[in-house]
Amino acid sequence: MGSDHLPPEPQKHREPWFAVRKDLDGTRSSALMTLSFVLPLLVWIVASYGPFWKALHEVQISAESPSVASVYVPGDRLAPEYFTPFQEAIRKDNAAVQTARDSGAPLEATARQNKKVVRQIFPLALAEGWVGKEDEANDDKLRTVWLKIASGESVPQKVVPSAENEKIIKANATLLAGAEWPTQALLKLVPQSRVSYDYPVYLVPPHKVFATAWADIKGKPEDAGAEEGTENKSDAKPLLVRYQESLRTISLGFLLAAVLAIPLGILAGTYSVFSRLLEPFTDFFRYMPAPTFGVVLMAIFGLEAAPKIMLVFIGTFPTALLVIANTTRQLDVSLLEAAQTLGANQKQLVTRVIIPGIMPTLYNDLRILIGCAWTWLVIAELLGFKSGLTEIIDTRGRRFQFEHVYPAILMIGLTGFFTDQFLGWLGRGLFPWAVRGHTPSARWFIRALTFLPGLAVAGIRKASAYAEKPTFPAVVPAEPASAAPEPSPLPAVTPTPRTTL
């Protein structure tokens, strides 16, 4: 048989991208989901690294001069037309000091003036971790660091002194090596900088955000700083410790709301009595802003974690009760009618029909309500003693340190997203009849999760069935059958004579 007679190969049907109420295949769905995250990241990258911003000098080592009216500190960003004259003014001061030394009549300076020169080394030493923030005015310790750098015992790696400043460090070391502070004027370190850009204060490049996030996760002691108005150094807490505090607050507040809202919502959606008793006031109460109860909650529960948990509860519970009641009412009435036809009583209607019937929708309602609970976290953690991720967002935000703020915000968003995705995947395994398509991975997970409990339940049922098995009595011999009575003879039938017409 020739090849001309072979049937044509069937062409694969490709679903269009834009089809009304049609689901995309797994590959397209995953690609679009990835793209939804990549696009905002690309916008952030382009906005941060695009050629839109002017190059600036971010001061790393600063100095003071009588000829410079402004005082600059490390971290300030200066345009080139300001930074270059700043350097030249310091070089001019150093030239006057050096000229006086060479002439044999060195300029005199007070100990306070020379200590201010030594403190120029503080930003460098802090970046290397040789000193802490509390050592900014520890002149003896900073002089020791200066001498170690001059001798080569300590080599800076993060803020490397320029060749010009290396000479100045060694020149001053001869005067600083004595037991007392020198009376001769010291040479000043020439201001150093690194390239920065005139971003808006709120636009922090991605690399700086991720680097700061990693440093906050490690929780370096040198990053610690006393918070305004408090004695504890709250900034010393690692980011993960704060994250655990926020998770505890949101979890306990949501669980408390769910434990109360689920049974009350089912009752309100099932019985009109509970609906009229609970829903009107709950509907009224949910329009009251939950933060307005903050002062009351602090008066009742104190200033620690309890008022924070209760604020999450107050913000979540009213909405949860009304949503669950509405979900219960939306159950198909024909299911209840069919159960009643089969003889179900009131208790069986609730336990065998209503609760199993609303479980998939109730599960999705709880997924949405978790997101509602997260929206109350930031407000809740401001009550009493600030704690958790909100402490970073509030404290650092007021200082315009957005490189610390954005990691905390991203952690909240990522936690909510991955929690929702996991619960959605888990729900497809728990309620496969409520979704289209097959989810074998979720089903296998559910089977593995419920395997041992299922064996235990089956064993209990088998044992209870064996215990309730009826015992039969011993076989009793049958009594001999009595003789059957003889049938009575039938009466004779007399034929009726025929009448011939």
What's the short story on this structure?
By secondary structure, the protein is an all-alpha fold.
Q: What topology emerges from the helices and strands here?
A:
Blueprint: H1 26-49, E1 55-61, E2 77-78, H2 80-102, H3 111-118, H4 122-128, H5 139-151, H6 163-176, E3 192-197, H7 206-218, H8 239-270, H9 272-285, H10 294-301, H11 306-329, H12 333-341, H13 346-374, H14 377-380, H15 388-398, H16 402-430, H17 440-467
Helix pairs in contact: 5-6, 7-16, 8-9, 8-11, 8-13, 8-15, 9-11, 10-11, 11-13, 13-16, 15-16, 16-17
InterPro entries: MetI-like (IPR000515), MetI-like_sf (IPR035906)
Keywords: Cell membrane, Membrane, Transmembrane, Transmembrane helix, Transport
Family: Belongs to the binding-protein-dependent transport system permease family.
Structure commentary:
- The chain is an all-alpha fold.
- Among the domains are: 55-197, no CATH class; 239-432, MetI-like (MetI-like fold).
- The chain contains 17 helices and three strands.
- It starts with 25 loop residues before the first helix and ends in a 34-residue tail after the last helix.
- Mean pLDDT is 83; it is low at 221-234 and 490-501.
- It is found in: Cell membrane.
